[in-house]
Amino acid sequence: MPVHFPMGYRICAGCNTEIGYGRFLNCLSAFWHPECFCCHACNLPISDYEYHPKCEVCNHFIPTNTAGLIEYRAHPFWIQKYCPSHEHDGTPRCCSCERMESQNTGYVALNDGRKLCLECLDSAVMDTRNCQPLYRDIQEFYEGLNMKVEQQVPLLLVERHALNDAREGEKNGHYHMPETRGLCLSEEQTISTILRRPRSGRGNCTMNMITEPYKLTRRCDVTAILILYGLPRLLTGSILAHEMMHAWMRLQGFRTLSQDVEEGICQVLAHMWLLTQLESASSNAPQTSLSATSSRLKKGKRSQLDRKLGEFFKHQIRRTLEHIRVTGRFPK
Ligand SMILES: [Zn+2]
Ligand SMILES: [Zn+2]
Ligand SMILES: [Zn+2]
Ligand SMILES: [Zn+2]
């Protein structure tokens, strides 16, 4: 039988004293002083809005630090909260979206040491043939800007070591920080290109990778565009849009630009292409080129995910542009 008290007369279930007219919580069929409603794990009060956060990596309550405060790390875009210790305990991050691997979802290992979350894997572009529809899409994007690349530039998907080797082989090569994921080549080189996607075995992608040497011949100032394999479609596309701009500028005879200026221009083009993709996704227009990857997810969920990933890649580019705005330089 419910007990009725006159207005304002409430007993705290924590300390058994009257609450009066102060703030109170109504939780677990009882009234509490906000400071008396404490977390079982750490004995700190759980105020109205702040709950003791659970770590999204180990699924435990995030421990208090030596000062008795709950200290957690959170990714600035994904807001994934985790214990600070996971930054040093070898917890892998997805090489594409940067989220940390949670202990109840396995990431897929690529054969060059990178790890990929299942959501990024779902639209990952894995081999050279797989990437051609996306290449045509980006060529059309450049044509739409009246910046058609007239020359036939081969686009090759490669492993990380092949990309690094090719970078070493360029006379005027440039580095992309924090990691090179695409290159626009000008030298004649032989590139080990991925002919067939690796079959994903249990928990890894190392089986049956078939590569083939590809001899570049110099017909113009650009011999090839190389892209790191295994990245989701929107990221692969934005890297490709960036490298296409290097190619376009080289072929148009832009030779005296400083590297910072050139990189900044290329990032703007990558950003523009991502925007067109996000717009077409939100207007539900049929996409002109889906990667050949068979999607394990339903269409609706897929496009929602693509959208979120696309927003993240956009956020990364904005971060770079913001760095340029503040420092006047491209991040090193
Ligand atoms: Zn109390
Ligand atoms: Zn944790
Ligand atoms: Zn990911
Ligand atoms: Zn670049």
UniProtKB/TrEMBL annotation:
- List the molecular function annotations (GO) for this entry: metal ion binding; ubiquitin binding
For this protein, the record's InterPro entries field holds: DA1-like (IPR045218), DA1-like_dom (IPR022087), Znf_LIM (IPR001781)
- Could you list this entry's UniProt keywords, alphabetically sorted: LIM domain, Metal-binding, Zinc
Pfam families per UniProt: DA1-like (PF12315), LIM (PF00412)
Q: Residues in domain LIM zinc-binding?
A: 10-104
Q: Which SMART domains has this protein been placed in?
A: LIM
- Asked if the Swiss-Prot or TrEMBL record annotates the protein with the keyword Metal-binding, the reply is yes
Q: Does the keyword Membrane apply?
A: no
The protein, known as: Protein DA1-related 1
Q: Which organism is it from?
A: Hibiscus syriacus (Rose of Sharon)
